[in-house]
Amino acid sequence: MLVLGIDTSCDDTAVGLLEAPRRLLANEVATQYDLHAAFGGVVPEIASRAHAERVTRVLERALAQAGRRLEDLDAVAVTHRPGLLGSLMVGVSAGRALALARGLPLVGVHHIEAHCVAAMAEHPDLDFPFVALIASGGHTALYACRDVRRIERLATTIDDAAGECFDKVAVLLGLGQPGGPAVSRLAEGGDPRAVAFPRARVKEDPLAFSYSGLKTAVLYHLKGPGGGRGAPNRAGAARPADVAASFEQAAVDGLVERALEAARREGVADLVVGGGVAANRRLRHDLLAAAPAGLRVRFPSVALCADNGGMVALRGAQLLAAGERAPLDLEVYATGE
Ligand code: KG4
Ligand code: ZN
């Protein structure tokens, strides 16, 4: 069964093709970093317009990459929540139109659930139950993936997402976007113990994340307590590479500690990592080093960590196999719940 997966939930136009249950044939993405760079964040109107301009071309590219034609499709999966409404609507409209035109089953996919199962495309032995850590520009959360129908959120961030924090620290360090890879590259030449940045804790919930305090601590360290984002760096500030490395270590420590605690509580044998921040090398290294015997840590390749259509096709295939079908007037929702 050939399943098409479409994701236009934020600023990436993504189309994937999957031979069910797990064989990925194509994964095409058109990013929009260049379009939003000048605005310091994703502009919803610009994002949805760009999706509308690009989605059919990205679909054509995915078909070409897989060596298949539209006529070969057996089902259509599309992200319908959570995300920017105008952006989601473009992908969902495309998916609905295709399903109608070709008489194919349609299924709506939850974007974060797709991140949770993405690693299954590359780890044939990975199966439910497992715990997933999803860390991206918009989300930082832990999920108990009990079976196909039961993916439950265990904890989330009470303020910023981890990736958002990397992006904001990149701005403070005068680096370009996306900030995660830029900060990480700079950190490679730095000392992670140079600056003692705080490891935030949420009193009521040891699994909950918090990243706004860390961002502010970096700001104060670089600019002094009264300094704004545009102020020059203060004389006593550590070298930028040391600041980057110390920040990265603090950000990663928070993810590693909670992910391992969640896996311990759930008693699972597999811990899966997803979302753009899963590409981070220190996170990969530290999580593998700290995992207890008996816990397998699964990282998808970088292309499957970031937003992509392949993970949507995979999740769609799971839901279709479980009997799920969406009506042709499938709706979009901004929220995950
Ligand atoms: O999942 P994603 O592609 O898009 C969403 O946010 O949904 O994640 C992008 C985020 C950005 O905040 C980016 O800075 C971060 O993931 N990121 C990284 C790395 N690569 C991407 N953060 C830390 N280290 C990296 N190597
Ligand atoms: Zn995402």
What can you tell me about this protein's structure?
- The chain has 337 residues and is α/β, with parallel strands linked by helices.
- The protein folds into two domains: 2-122 and 304-321, 2-Layer Sandwich (Nucleotidyltransferase, domain 5), CATH 3.30.420.40; 130-299, Nucleotidyltransferase, domain 5 (2-Layer Sandwich).
- Helix content is 41%, strand content 18%.
- It has eleven helices and ten strands.
- It has helices at 33-36, 44-66, 85-102, 111-117, 162-172, 179-187, 212-223, 240-266, 281-290, 302-305, 309-321; strands spanning 2-7, 13-19, 23-30, 75-81, 106-110, 130-135, 140-147, 150-156, 270-274, 296-298.
- A five-stranded mixed beta sheet has the order 3-2-1-4-5, sandwiched between helices. A five-stranded mixed beta sheet has the order 8-7-6-9-10, with helices on both faces.
- A hairpin with a 4-residue loop joins strand 6 (130-135) and strand 7.
- The chain is globular and about 65 Å long.
- The mean pLDDT is 95.
- Zinc ion binds next to helix 4.
